[in-house]
Structures are given as C-alpha cells and as structure tokens.
Write a structure and sequence with these properties.
This protein has 86 residues and is an alpha+beta fold. The chain is built from four helices and three strands. Helices cover 51% and strands 15% of the residues. The longest helix has 27 residues. 9% of the residues are buried. Pathway: Protein modification; protein ubiquitination.
C-alpha cells in the first residue's frame, strides 16, 4: 500500500494507527481535515492527532471505519430493495 493511500491517526498517548484513507474518509470530520484547501499539517502529512482521544477509543473508532466501509453499502442496498423510507 502506498503512503498516499494511508492516513495516520494518533491518539492522546501517541499511539499511531495507520489505516486506509478510504476507511478514514468514513468520518466527515477527518475527510474535511484531509481535503481542506490550504497548507494544514493534516493535509500535507496525512496524519491527524487526537489529543483528547485515548488509544483504546481510537482503536474502536478505526474498527468502526472499516466496518462501516464494508457494510454501509450493503445496508443501503437492502433498504432500497425493500422500499424502506419511500
């Protein structure tokens, strides 16, 4: 995997999670940080530090990103298939 295809999320304790950029983009906040115009550190270096989120919580967040990336599309297809929300 290329470096530009990954994002580094850093917990309050300094633990680094290197995850797929697609997974990180599940979060609108992280997406905004990484794609906003200008010379922000997050945009330039592809890393986001969360000084108030501990390692255990950030790990669960990363797991959720991958879960959402894998299953969100399936749920939306199922909802459309059964006409829910129409």
């Amino acid at each position: 995997m290329k470096k530009e295809d990954t994002v580094k999320l850093i917990s309050a304790e300094g633990f680094e999670f290197v995850i797929d950029k697609k997974a990180a983009m599940v979060s609108q906040t992280i997406r905004n940080m990484l794609t906003s115009p200008g010379s922000f550190a997050e945009t330039e270096h592809g890393e986001v530090t969360f000084p108030e989120i501990n390692t255990t919580i950030l790990e669960k967040i990363c797991q959720y990103f991958y879960w959402s990336l894998q299953y969100a599309r399936l749920f939306s297809e199922a909802i459309g298939k059964f006409g829910i929300g129409r």
